[in-house]
Specification:
This protein is mostly beta strands. The protein is built from no helices and 4 strands.
Length: about 70
């Protein structure tokens, strides 16, 4: 298995980064991450998963962004 730089960040509706949940090399597999959003207000946020690095290795990377609604 190859290690890949894996980053999960959370952004507010304006695109400001509000949290970094993961920023480390990971082997392929399934993982769970807890996110404490106590300091955030209700609203729409986005989380972005990026794994791999297009500039190194095989040149493959995976990026996906999804919407998250926080309700209080």
């Amino acid at each position: 298995s190859e290690l890949a730089q894996t980053v999960i960040k959370v952004y507010d509706i304006l695109g400001n980064e509000v949290a970094t949940l993961v920023n480390e090399e990971k082997e392929p597999g399934y993982y769970e991450v807890e996110f404490n959003a106590e300091q955030l207000s209700s609203g729409i946020y986005f989380y972005r998963l990026q794994s791999g690095n297009p500039l190194t290795g095989s040149g493959q990377s995976y990026i996906q962004t999804k919407k998250m609604i926080l309700l209080r």
